[in-house]
Design brief:
Distance between the termini: 22 Å
Radius of gyration: 15 Å
Oligomer: single chain
Strand content: 15-25%
Number of helices: 5
Shape: globular
Helix content: 25-40%
Length: 152
Amino acid sequence: MNQAKPRVYVINGPNLNMLGKREPAVYGFLGLEEINRQLALAAKGLGLEIFFSQSNHEGVILDRIHEIFEENPAGIIINPGALTHTSVALRDALLLLSCPIVEVHLSNIYKREPFRHNSMLADIATGQLTGFGHYGYHMALNAIHQLLQIPV
């Protein structure tokens, strides 16, 4: 019998489609497509299925989270971009999920402007990775993989 692989969903918020072009000194030189390509390879090696979405529109992201809720997710990696600091609606949508949620930020939001220090998601996320550039996504994927391991 072929057992389904655990499903991990990567959600990227506003402006992350401009990675590699927008402020590369802050966000890095890799584009989102390359980050996703690398994550897909890593997920395959870990025995996970991985799905990607990105939108500049809050409602589209909320609708996607509602869809993911119905798809039995094993974990969520989310870089909400600027929605991190403002979106109660995003927070409420993520509260639907009972799987691990890892909040990722390419830059260290706590070393930036004071308004970026507040995350609407930090207290509901399983964990937060901030300041590790694109490696933060890989760290999040590995963390979810570890969290899914069943003790012997």
